[in-house]
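pinging the channel bc i need a second pair of eyes. not urgent but kinda urgent?? the chain im working w is below, pasted from the shared doc
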Amino acid sequence: MITFAKITYHMSQVHLIDHPMVQHKLSIMRQKETGSKDFRQLLKEISLLMGYEITRDLPLADIEIETPISKMTASRVLGRKLAVVPILRAGLGMVDGLLDLVPVARVGHIGLYRDEKTHKPVVYYCKLPEDIQERLVIVTDPMLATGGSSCDALDMLKERGCTNIKLMCLVAAPEGIEKVQAAHPDVDIYVAAIDERLNENAYIVPGLGDAGDRIFGTK
């Protein structure tokens, strides 16, 4: 069983997932000498582990099946549709782990980048499943820093009728949590770590650097 702590902010909750293997893998990812190949693989593995918690409350239905030995009553997920929506580009690194857990999930994409001067997000792409409003939507982004990109992505989803959304990040800053909670008090946040603060360049301290660059080896 994956254990986790719940920290209440306003109306929704931050789920801090403290499973030993999540924390172990995250520590390796934080190290500056960890290369892109290992960084990507560890992020995929952590995303799979976090996925167990984020899907914990999916409803089950009883069905009758027959094993090689006898008939029995078993359980299956009750018709709940899922969608994974990464915030490009770093959020892509968390998709494969979730798809390993829920292979039938649909995948949408929201493209945002941070303006280096204003530190505010700029939207450049949005492609979502046609029935996105009918699905439990899991938004992925490894870093919850200022919270600007996450809030914009959540705004876009709600404008398209989504009412059941969860945000899954790897590392969060208190400033980002507060911003998302204030703007979207109905969206629970799942994280593997809450770090100290943001620095003058709006990077998380101690953080792990630029997740996109480390995933794709672009710096």
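so DSSP finds six helices and 16 strands in the chain. and The CA atoms of residues 5 and 16 lie 5 Å apart. — does that match what u expected or am i reading it wrong
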